[in-house]
Amino acid sequence: MSMRQQFVKTVESQLACDEKIVLLLGDIGIFGFRKAFHNFANRVYNIGILEPATIGLASGLAKTGFIPIVHTIAPFLVERSFEQLKIDFGYQRLGGNFVSVGASYDYASLGCTHHCPGDVGVLQNIPGMEIVVPGTAAEFDALFQQSYANGNPTYYRLSERENNKSQSVTFGHANLLKKGTLATVVIVGPTLDYALPAIEDLDVSIIYYTTLAPFDGLMLRNNLANSGKILLVEPFYSGTLAREIFSAVYPKPVTIDSVGVPREFLKHYGKANEHDQAIGFTCDNILAKLEALING
Amino acid sequence: MPEKLIKKMKRQIVHAAYLAGEGHVASAFSILDLLWVLYDKVMSFDATRPDEIYLDHFVLSKGHASLALYAVLAEKGILADDSLNNFCQYDGKLGGHPDCNKILGVEASTGSLGHGLPIAVGMALGSKISQFNNRIFCLIGDGECNEGTIWESSLLAAHHQLSNLCCIVDYNHSTDRALDLNDLAGKFKSFGWEVLSIPGHDHQEIFHALSHRHPHRPLAIIAETIKGYGIKSMENEPAWHHRSPNAEELNSMIKELS
Asked: How wide is the angle at C-alpha A47 spanned by C-alphas A44 and A49, nearest 5°?
């Protein structure tokens, strides 16, 4: 089951047991949620293609005691609606759930307008905004159920590509997969399968993150390899997590490198894995970067 | 009596702006009559619990006119009478734009134009889902109607038949210089709203309009107002959009409002 199919299943199930949930779809996922439209007609809306007003409307629902879930494509949910997320939810301290599809260049063939490697970096600028990047459908289900009703604004980044194996994840906590001495590798959500085959036999600490905000700095601080060398494997703009890393380990000096999406517009189409190759999001490059970091 | 009261609130407003060296006094004067009639004659609320969700609610979308809201809330006993003297002070609760996290009785933190109406639409939808018999009022500026979210949320309100929603437009024409909105009533009507156009300083007309409720459509009240109404030198004078009076101006205004 894909993350998106899991999203439908999870929300349908929660709609049945939590009468406070209202689902607002930006004219996507209509077929997937057809049962929900039928079964919960007054709490499931195809709201249309007007993202900023949708976020504002969602905050009004939150003010009247509901738990809104807004779902649309990442750049329109995050970048077009940023001010509404910032003020209407962040500043007003309201709870809401924002579930995107089209992570980074999942929609490679649709071009730059539908790419969104900047979503996490943008949302980090909203104090109190929680950010969840699950690596599998099952991880999404677990993280959503743990956090959707916690009264905070929470962003869930669904990805078309996911790891083969789910970890036992807890909202707000990272998973220590391995402890080592030469370097620490911080791996985010669906990048685990890119990184793990290349590095699991090396003497490195491997920490897996699915909640990025709040960031589990304690896990990193307690398991930082003595070398102070850190490799970030991020499915969004390279270096997005650098500030969190520095804060977590301060005042220990660290050296950081990152495998992520370069900060440039990706001008090609094709498939997402073709972009992976082009920007170096590969097992080989992750290993090469890690070895250079360790030996540098 | 209302005229004396309105003048008293206007004196409080200019005095607060003078003390703070800050404020959108002319915008506050533009909407004061509308807000006063709304709170005094129309809205159902509990001054001790204005956040009760099943009662009526008001969202000031043009947040920069906050002084008018503060004056009305103070007159209604929701804010302490002397609160306005702390307007825009470092530790004060009353900011240049209203903050719902600081003031019980302020329903939304606004200031970025185009946010309040979508929030009010959500509140109206939430009330409708909950089958409350309350009303949600929202006041927007005509300049604010330049924002796309006003029209996005207007589409939503009409489509979802939010007859519990009333949007008051403070049509003081101050931004005609940038974009002339022309037939604003016609625009809302074409979006599927019930529309009433009224003189925005006539309390009787305001009351009748606010009391109206269409069975299916949201209500837009296009209130023709004068920015800075009540102080001749301020009326429709762009220089007064965002400035506070000096001591000499304050004295003159107080005299004019007495």
From this structure: 150
